[in-house]
Protein 1
Amino acid sequence: MQKNLSSPELPSVTEEITHPQPQHTTTLMKKIPPQIFALLAMVSVQTGATVSKSLFQSIGPLGATFLRLGFAAILLLLFWRPDIRHLTRRQIGLSIIFGVAITCMNASFYMAINRIPLGIAVTLEFVGPLGVALLQSRRLKDLLWAALAATGIILLAPIGTTNVDLIGAIFALIAGIFWGVYIISNVQVGRAFSGGQGLALSMLVSACLIAPFGIATGGPMVFKPSILLIGLAVSVLSTIIPFSLEMEALRRLPSRVFGIFMSVEPAMAAMIGFLFLHELITARDLVAMLLIITASIATSLETKTLHQ
């Protein structure tokens, strides 16, 4: 997944989707509660993640990352049609930084879910936006939420009876770090470009960066029609559909409420992982996830209250 960052706080994980939007909303869309759009966006993202795992045996996580980012770049470039003839050095630099963040975030996440359950990976990845919010905070109370999140991470560490793969957990945390970088750089890209042109260009950079690794690990299978079709489905489910749904949700839903919805995404990921991938999570893992989700929701509420 991917979000109007006036400040990089937890709800801002949706920053990439707050570009100028169409003025007209159909009567049918208005009748649907915005919460439904937010929930469907989460379902779409996590479903895309489950579908992507079907590619891992054929082309590996990096090959799957290449197809997701490659198709996303093509679709976004066709939609936004950025003018590359009049780019400034600053715009080019920001596009590269943002593109690197997108590449590392997605590649690390796919490497993570190749080794650990989807719900645990998403939970650990949430440490990134949570860390950004906490680093911005000047409230002593937020130390409590940081402690809760840290406790959750420790519980997910492969210590004692837990069966979480260490390398997978590290990849998930790396994905979280780059999610934090993504959030911060997204602010600058949003200010430097109009509409979604910056996102489209950054996605192009990202696709070009991952291409050598994805093609090298996936080999000729990357270009097999059936694999390309699944890759397109992953890109649509993980990028295009949630982009549209979250955009519609944010038009009518307070960002504080949206932030809370985003904070429960690890639980959604765990449920989808259980239903479609038969991934089991222990009681210890559930407690750890609950601690991190609680810290995320609390930080969302505290940050929004502070800015009101």
Protein 2
Amino acid sequence: MLAGLLNANGGLYASLASSYGDETDVGAYALFSLKDGPFFTLVALGASGLASIPFQTFLGVIIPIVIGMILGNIDPDMRKFLGSSKLLLIPFFSFPLGAGMDLSTIIKAGGPGILLGLIAAFTGIGAYVLLKLFKENPIVGLATGSTAGNAVATPVVVAAADPALASVAHAATAQVAAACVISAIVCPIIVSYVFKRSQKKKANKSLASAA
């Protein structure tokens, strides 16, 4: 559950944010990428003594963000150049996401894997509520509900750190893989449904106020 719920798909978020949000929402991918990897899973497990914290992974995510912040603030031309290329990256996120999916993993994982995927897809509700409280676009909050493909490797990493968990690593890998596929399918459906419903409510309010 830690591997499946603490590792969200940044590529899927960027794709959905570009369709249902603005450039600020897409730009939030830089910070969201902190969750796009096994770091937080291993931090949680490391706190319990089950795994070591990969400090290099943390640096690998933080350093590009810091460099980008520095370049964007000291050079307006660089900010304009890099900012205009955000949407160009979306196809490079989306194509590998779809090509790497193996629907047979759902069958191998069974009920637990499907349940984990559904839970992961609905974790975006928390972000939705928070964004709504802060008067921001809440729809993109729902786009955070997913499991990243690289989470599939997390059970193996944990088992390497703690051999006592090696016996469950295979089942956990299948379940996390199923969660990745399920959440990648369900999450966009949730986002699209809530967006259409919110647009319908706005249209009804406009008609009511006009009347």
Protein 3
Amino acid sequence: MATKHEQILRYIEGLEVGEKISVRQVARALSVSEGTAYRAIKEAENQKLVNTIERVGTIRIEKKKKENIEKLTFAEVVNIVDGQVLGGRNGLHKTLTKFVIGAMQLPDMEKYIDAGSLLIVGNRERAHESALNAGAAILITGGFDTAESAKRIADELDMPIISTSYDTFTVATMLNRAIYDQLIEKEILLVEDIITPLEKTIYFEPSDTIEYFNQVNRKSAHSGYPVIDENKKLVGIVTSRDAVGKEEHLLIRDVMSTHPVTVNDKMTVAAAGHNMIWEGVDLTPVVDRDDYLEGIISRRDVLKAFQMAQRQPQQGETIDDIVRNQMADVPEDPTSLAFTVTPQLTNHFGALSYGALTTILTEFGSQLLKQNKRSEGVPESLTVYFVKQVPLGGRVLVKSRILHLSRRSVKFSFDFVHNQEVIASAMVMYQLFEK
């Protein structure tokens, strides 16, 4: 049976896009406390089912698919620019297709405006009405108001007019930053991207026998299987090792492991892979917040995802990408790399930052893994035991050495050399994914 929290989320998901909701309304409709309704609405906001706007309220918005995640709704624009809605509130749930900066004559501006776009402009009232009639929304910069006639058009067409105190350049920068951040989010692989869903998952019930397990296991390539009750709730996991040598009349509940390692579908693949290595498991059940089984992921799935991600074009640039872009190979020595301390790699004193140093260590270690082991791994421990400051513009050579290499782990040592002097030494240990 679904929890109250789940019931509220399903209720919200079933509302019409654009409909306003409130804590009191949800509490009354589903006979729950206002505290429970508030927590569920916040979760719906995290899942991008609703958007809350100051002085407007909470609005049901269309949940964007991952491939369209970089598109903003007008409600999100209001929050990004700390805006005030002057008209067209009923259209806040709509998605904008592009934004146009109105820094030109009206006839020229009209060539670039079409339905679904957002015109960023100052207090040019003729431009406001012209854009609204073309099906565009308006973002007025400088904190200006607009004519009452424009507000009436906005209400009739359900196209928002938003006012912000920021100038045009700042607003364009803020919107670009928001889209850019969502592009980065789009590239991050989640468990939901690689899950084997429940309908394709082989699972057992506690009352199944070892004999039945052996019959199924002989036909499958898996080494472990989730165990669920009659409500599809996860109660354990059973592996070939659990069943080997056991009498065939025994039940799964007698040999299964309870409290298995699990993940949820919104966890990153990197975090899920980390957990699998840490716990030494090959298969992990994917469950919802109430432990109902949604599917499984395997180490093979994680490895394939990592390999696929490396072949994809990168659209958003993270801090790690910025650091990685400064790293250069040393042609005469494949076990070394070089980098220059650019402004992006410095702390507030203008010297190489510890964060950049750590990123360089882990990224270089991953490269060396592929060269020596042709494998994927995650850093388990990192120690930097001697540091001198490297100034802005300094050229640094990083020399590596393998201290220990085994089937499950590898240890590297690194020396950072600047002006022929060792300025930092470090050791990184990686746990390896087994294919």
Protein 4
Amino acid sequence: MDEMTPQRLTVLGHAQRLAIFRLLMRRYPDRLPAGEIGAALGLKPSTLSAYLAALAEVGLIGQTRAGTSLRYGIEMETVRNLFDALLIDCCQGRPDICSPLTQPDPSGDSRMTQSATGRKFNVLFICTGNSARSILAETILRDRAGDRFKAYSAGTKPYSELNPFAVQVLRDKGHDVEPLRAKNISEFHGEDAPVLDFVFTVCDLAANEECPPWPGQPISGHWGMPDPVKATGTEAEKALAFQQAYGALHRRIEAFAALPLTTLDRIALQSAVDDIGRN
């Protein structure tokens, strides 16, 4: 066991330091400014600074400079070493007591599979309001690769409605908007909810929020992008922001739909999903 393991566990034993760690894990591979972390978790700058320093001291997070500001992110190699210490050393690698992530399938095959009946992969796109970006993504995937994927979208706000600019962009692109409605994420946690294979957040605020664990351990990714709803200016300038959001999501979904899902293992697939979110 790494001699730093006890210190890292001690640092994570503090509720607010653990909350920072969990937030940065949800946003990986992004690196966030301290102000965004503090706002998401309601921490004062002085308190946050002390917690970030403690996490950095044991190597769990690192910082990079972007212009005049510092950005913080997970040091994944260190985190993997910590998890290895817990799952392989402490648990002796026993699949009956270790995380099921260590044994995704009893046969040892960790690739994504589709049943012989042709079950489609279920994909959920999450945003705060489920009014624009997630609606665009749901529609694009449905129409781009509906033979292999069943696309859903949801928001973290209790109530929302479709943004008229988003609906108009979809109409202009030839998409059917009749099936669309704003939905809350709670619809996907009930007993009758579909078992999800992929969960993508497409806005930073939604990624910053904590959600209950998803059954079935879907592949997750963060594909954050600017919110076109916040665009200002003329009607044409606002419409352009939605066109740009549509184009960015279309490129990412094209790349996602082209992945050889049934031949990649979970690690390779997660890496590919993360790479798409960077572009």
